[in-house]
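Troubleshooting log. The previous structure file for this entry was overwritten by mistake, so regenerating from the original sequence record. Sequence copied from the archived sheet and checked twice against the printout by T.R.
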Amino acid sequence: MAKTAPRARSPRRPEPTSATADLHLPKALPSVVLRPRLFDLLDAGAADCALTLVSGPPGSGKSTLLTSWLREGGRDVSVAWVALREADRAPFWQQVLDAVRPSLGRDMLLYGLDAPGDDASPAFVERFVRAAAELDRPLVLVLDDLHLASAAAVGALDRVLRAPPPQLHVVAASRIDPALPLHVLRVGGDLAEIRAHELAFDEDETRMLFSGMGIELLDHELATVVARTEGWAAGLRLFGLSIHARQGDLDVVERFAVDERPASEFLAAEVLAIQPFDIRMFLLRTSIVDSLDGELANELSDRRDGERVLEQLYRDNVFIERVGGNGHVYRYHQLFGALLRAEAAYELQDELGALHQRAAVCLARRGRPVEAVQHAADARQWELVASLLGEHWSAVFASTDHDAQTDLFPALPAQEASISPVVEAFQALTRVATSSSRGEAALLADAQARRDDVPEAARPGFDALVRHASALAARARGNFPQAAKLARLGLERAPIEATSAESEDQRRALGLATLGAAQLWEGAPDEARATIEEAVDIARRTGTTPAEIDALAHLALLELEAGQLRRAARIARAALDLERVHAQSLPAGVVARLVLALVQYEWGDLDVAEAALASADAVTRRSGDVPGRVLGAIATAAVALSEGGESADDALLRLRAIRRRTPVLTGALGGRVAALEARLLAKTARLDEAAELLADSNGDPDAAVASARIKLALGLPLDALEALAARRGAGPYVEVEARVTEAVARRALGDEDGAVESLEVALALAEPEAVRRPFIDAGSAVRDLLGAHLRRTNAHRWLAAELAAYLDGRNAADGVAPAELLEALSDRETEVLRYLPTIMSNADIASELFVSVNTVKTHVKSIYRKLGATRRQDAVRRARQLRLL
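Regenerated output below.
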């Protein structure tokens, strides 16, 4: 969260050299960031080139950069600074000579030149060049705001640069490219350029800027601000001032995306207000699209010179950037684009709908269906929407975040929906895909009943859309055979129904993800793995994000079932990262969160497990996704076993309710659900009822282990061993728990050696994936056995020692350290971590990294949290265990 702090001291700057000491440089701003990467470019240009052009839009930090560069000093050159202004300025060449003379001897030719007006004669230019060539040391002539110079002055400068004297190096800062022979200078190696993308602040420079302003941001907050401002210096500084104006308001970063008034006011005054009327209209009309080229610009602006206008705007630094590789596609800066769209909504109300319709038609014609559908919806042209969706529904579904899908038809009148079965079917798909609302069944039924209303050419796409929505709906209801059947049919027909190879691949990715999930829940893990891995591959190649999230979440569940906890956690995190980055909200995200909850539970971190469970539970309780509810009930029951009390009672009620509602699905999970129910009964002191529930386990491993634990609780260790002997085909985790239970039973029978041997087998099975839960739940019953193990062997020592310490209560306050980072360290945190094994203090580290002490403290606190440590020594130890050091 954003917070204000005492301002950090800026790194000490070198004293100016004698050549710059008498300069009247612009007043330095507070918290100026020294930018060595740009200083290097300026130094190279001033040494080797006749002209260094610093070209960028208003507020991009051109003057500040040049001032800080010159104040840094350390160059054996003479420097002259000319600040051009629109009003009350002397003639151009008078300003140049006045700036140059303080660094010259009176006997030098250049000192005695008489200044002409702006339009210098050829004779003066010749004398100026000859005089500059006789200088005894290089002269760096800085022309700030060259765009304000008259055409005559720039013309005279042009003549100087066509035959540049070797001792003269011009450094010009300008909002637009001046009318100078840049192409000639570029070819001749006499031009160095620093443009808007180089002037943009990166994250490290932004952190230094904010630190100097007394502002500390977390890494994700910093990334959000840099991405939104695109590193624009004025935007960043205005944002910093807004934080101070709100006295450290903690919500300011979250509100930045919608509260951009300071930046908008700057852009409106400095950029938009000075444009001629025709260019202003061009900007407003073309701002409705994310990117455009000359043809699309012509379509929207009713001009024929769109390409030329875009190129001129780019050269004039009007907050427009080239995108792509061909140099002919452009986009507006995010903040400037937002301003233009706001102005267009006000000034172009009557023609905005027609503009969106033009954009839709043009974008569809050019193979950009997702944007075409969005613009058709904005134009309220529902027949066009239906036509586009019938052909391109998979691209729209795959490429649009679900908030945008929900907002795609926000004002769709009922009478319009009633004549568009395609739109109804797509609405049903988005509803079932997000589990955000009900009514998808009625929409699908109505859409299918009116299939004859769909134009014949669009019916193959419509059929594929309805089929996929129906498959997802069947899966959400727990009808996996039907979901698998529909998914297979969709895969068979994709080559026939799809209108392009890209569309076919997108539909294959969606179908494979749906089929793989159904196979997994039907109890065919090997088939499911092959299907899901293929889905991940195709989804990544085609950018089909919903399919990738879906497939990754279920692949994580497969890895969890296989006992691969670390891999399960990594894959689940990858799914959730995609969900966050692409603003998706899918039932698969619930599966990923539940996988993480169960992994953390097995690793022994109950707090993190409960947090992940609560996050998933908030969604599953209001959704109609049956598999998510079942898995949520199972995870809740598992965690409740380690808590007891009311948690166990609540989990038991929930698990029984799920069993009654979904007998087929819960029955397909074998003895797992019955085993959990029995253990919850035992946890609530109903041991006889629990034993009766498991009387006929038929060798199911989960039921066998649960039965053994209940018999131990009843004081029947020999019966417990008999129950364990009946287990068949136990997975890795269940086998760990079985061996721990076996060790406790043997110890109860007086077989100490056999108990230790069983414990050693459990440790050997548990160590690769750092499984801790079975040992922790066994409590004091295994504490002495762990001590005996540590006395007799060094095998599995780190895990045994950690468990013994935890069970002794030595680490009870800190909990059990994580087996793997669930939240990766940022680059800056990794850099700080490298200093922690040393004797350096936080102040020493801050000095080394050129940041404030508060910044280092923030990073150290975050490192401790992520590593599960409370002290520096513990953090270093954990980092070494995780091979981060």
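The two ends are 28 Å apart (CA to CA). Archived copy saved in two places this time.
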